[in-house]
Design brief:
Blueprint (H helix, E strand, L loop, with lengths): L1 H10 L1 E5 H20 L2 H11 L2 H14 L8 E9 L6 E7 L1
């Protein structure tokens, strides 16, 4: 889950199964909420949870200030209407608003 959240934050939009998209949504939103504070304690907490300096830097320098005025709901899940061939799992796209 950590790698999926890191990829999502870095790219801003990923295509994955609907179950995984629903699972990473609260994690990503919590990370963005922490980044909105902008203090050193938040940066250290994000580093301890994500283990990736580039992702934490993007959160603190880009996404935190971008969503400073927004109270929540930073992500959007869009169902693709297609399914994976091998197991038939529904595919969805999760993106930043």
């Amino acid at each position: 889950m950590r790698n999926l959240v890191c990829d999502f934050i870095r790219k801003g939009k990923i295509e994955t199964t609907l179950a995984r998209a629903k699972a990473i949504r609260p994690l990503a939103e919590r990370m963005i909420t922490m980044a909105k504070k902008g203090d050193l304690a938040s940066r250290r907490l994000l580093l301890s949870r994500l283990h990736d300096r580039r992702t934490v830097a993007k959160l603190m320098e880009d996404l935190g200030p971008r969503y400073a005025q927004r109270k929540g709901g930073y992500t959007r899940i869009i169902k693709s209407g297609k399914s994976r061939k091998r197991d038939g799992a529904p595919v969805a796209t999760i993106e930043l608003v």
